[in-house]
Structure formats: structure tokens, C-alpha cells
Amino acid sequence: MENELKHTIAVVADGPTCTGFRLAGVQNVFPRQGKEAEQKIEELLGSEEVGILIVNERAFGSMDWRLKRRIERMAKPVVIPVPDKDGPAVQESGSLAEMVKRALGFELMK
């Protein structure tokens, strides 16, 4: 299967979170915060290789509403907010299961 598509996991988060994902074997790790994180997320959203984009909850919560709306409408990559070293932030977009359902259009685990 030479034409098989391969999708990667990318992480845009704070330093400690990125270190954890590097230790877990994720290669596309980008320690960024604030506007730099937002710019990197926008860049990765346009990448054909990225299938899952893991972002810091706090960065996700503070990003521009237009970028959030774009993420909500995209099926790929699936954007997954994760807590940072300070713990979970209040998340307006819902649970992981709800995000996957919104991205795919159906409930994956029933």
C-alpha cells in the first residue's frame, strides 16, 4: 500500500506539556504560548499531514473566536485541548467525545 495516507500527531502547548508528549514519542512538538501558539496552530491546520492536533487548553481558550470557529467546522485535523501543568481549565467546547462527534458527524463510541 504505497499510496496509503499517513497522518501525524502535532502538539502546540507549554514547555512541560510538550516535554511529556516528546517522552511519549510524539515528534511534531511545538512549545509555544500566546500569539505564537495561535500562529503555529493556524499553520498546522493547513497541513495535510496532521491528523490530530493537541493544544493547550489555556491557549485554546484564549485564541481568536474566528480561529475557534474554523476549528469547529473542520473534520481534519481533530483538535484536542489538553490541560497544562496547572490542571484543567474550564472548557467551553465540551468533552472529547463531543468534539469527535462534531468532527465526524456521528458518535464514535456508543
UniProtKB/TrEMBL annotation:
The keyword Membrane is assigned to this record: yes
InterPro entries noted in UniProt: ATPase_V1-cplx_f_g_su, ATPase_V1-cplx_fsu_bac/arc, ATPase_V1_fsu_sf
Keyword tags: ATP synthesis, Cell membrane, Hydrogen ion transport, Ion transport, Membrane, Transport
Signal peptide per UniProt: none
SUPFAM superfamilies: AtpF-like
UniProt keyword Ion transport present: yes
Cellular compartment(s): Cell membrane
GO cellular component terms, A-Z: plasma membrane
Membrane-protein topology: Peripheral membrane protein
Pfam families, per database record: ATP-synt_F
GO MF annotation: an example: proton-transporting ATP synthase activity, rotational mechanism
Chief location bin: membrane
Gene Ontology process terms (BP): proton motive force-driven plasma membrane ATP synthesis
Family statement drawn from the similarity comment of this UniProt entry: Belongs to the V-ATPase F subunit family.
Function: Component of the A-type ATP synthase that produces ATP from ADP in the presence of a proton gradient across the membrane.
Subunit relationships: Has multiple subunits with at least A(3), B(3), C, D, E, F, H, I and proteolipid K(x).
UniProt name for this protein: A-type ATP synthase subunit F
Species per Swiss-Prot/TrEMBL record: Candidatus Iainarchaeum sp
